[in-house]
Design goal:
Elements: H1 7-17, H2 20-31, H3 36-47, E1 52-55, H4 62-72, E2 77-81, H5 88-92, E3 93-98, E4 103-108, E5 115-119, H6 126-138, E6 140-143, E7 146-149, E8 155-160, H7 173-176, E9 181-184, H8 190-201, H9 214-224, H10 231-245, E10 259-261, H11 265-281, H12 289-300, E11 305-306, H13 308-312, H14 317-327
Parallel strand pairs: 1-8, 1-9, 2-5, 5-8
Antiparallel strand pairs: 3-4, 6-7, 10-11
């Protein structure tokens, strides 16, 4: 029965709860020129308690974006530069022997912050990557025999340079799957770059003010769960996910030889979650198909494996997603 769910009441509540989004976006836009897509994705990750993998060449304001977000939300920020000689202890922390006390004390690593930037994650070896990913998944860290719960909200934004560059350790599929979104960012447009150049040459941007408290974010994360998602939308999401696994069942036989593996159940969970967060950012109390379509590339881009055949034909997971989204019936 549709009547039992009061969409209007939910919408009014979400409208009220999401009022801070405009303030937050305004503060970020003081410093981040253009890159609207990236800013929106950061907010989706923050509201959906997910993490973000950003791919793009150096110099596209990736570090600046998450740093600005941590200033606009009164949260703590830390940055870890991943290098080939980094050790897991450099990320999570370690036990240090104290000679005076004749005992070990715990030194916490940079992972203990609300906003963690893992810069160039694919430059560090697998054991460091897995230490970070374990913290992301479990939201806790064990040092010695003590376990610490990480601060809330906890958002990891990892950046990676496009893999063609040498000296990189590509992230294994199972680990990439832990990221809620993978966002590819491109160069700014010419007029945007003119503004960036001008502001930098004239001594920088406006100061970012803290406009949202950490508690407000935690409250908003709970409010997102109340965004109404109709069964038809759930079915739409599942159709998209299942089409990545069994394309032949959706009249997409030509995709069968191009996909080596489809999206995991994390894909459907994150697609539903991201669509809800997107509706929340748009200050709406219910999910519409456009919300799903708006986030589908970022959620599935890193969850579809492509075969050698697809690589030989220069077909990317992007194009596969486009074909699926265009084929599947919109509710």
């Amino acid at each position: 029965m549709e009547d039992t769910i009061d969409i209007r009441a939910i919408s009014e509540k979400i409208e009220k709860e999401s009022a801070f989004i405009d303030l937050l976006t305004f503060e970020m836009n003081k410093v981040i020129v253009g890159q609207k897509h990236m800013v929106e994705r950061l907010l989706i990750g923050l509201l959906g308690k997910g993490h973000i993998l950003l791919e793009g060449v150096p110099g596209l304001a990736k570090t600046l974006a998450i740093n600005t977000l941590s200033k606009a939300v009164q949260g703590s920020f830390s940055r870890i530069q991943f290098t080939p000689d980094l050790l897991p202890a450099d990320v999570v922390g370690t036990l240090i022997y104290n000679m005076k006390e004749n005992d070990f004390s715990i030194k916490k690593g940079p992972i203990f912050a609300n906003f963690v930037l893992a810069d160039e994650i694919n430059r560090a070896p697998a054991k460091v990557q897995s230490a970070l990913l374990e913290a992301m998944q479990e939201k806790q860290v064990t040092i010695g025999d003590e376990t610490f719960i990480l601060d809330k909200p906890f958002l990891v934004m990892a950046t990676q340079n496009p893999v063609e560059q040498e000296g990189t350790y590509p992230l294994p599929e199972a680990q990439v799957d832990r990221f809620m979104l993978k966002t590819v960012i491109d160069y700014p447009k010419m007029d945007e770059e003119q503004l960036i150049m001008r502001a930098n040459l004239n001594g920088g941007f406006d100061r970012v003010n803290p406009v949202v408290s950490v508690d407000q974010i935690i409250k908003a994360q709970e409010a997102v769960k109340e965004v109404y998602m109709d069964e038809k939308i759930e079915k739409y999401i599942l159709d998209i996910i299942f089409a990545t696994r069994y394309p032949e069942k959706y009249k997409l036989e030509e995709l069968k030889p191009l996909i080596s593996f489809g999206a995991s159940p994390r894909g459907s969970i994150n697609l539903g979650n991201a669509a809800r967060c997107y509706a929340f950012i748009k200050r709406r109390g219910y999910v519409i198909p456009e919300d799903v379509r708006a986030v589908v590339h970022d959620v599935l881009r890193h969850r579809i494996g492509i075969t050698y055949e697809a690589e030989a034909e220069n077909i990317t997971s992007e194009e596969i997603i486009n074909k699926i989204v265009n084929e599947i019936e919109v509710p």
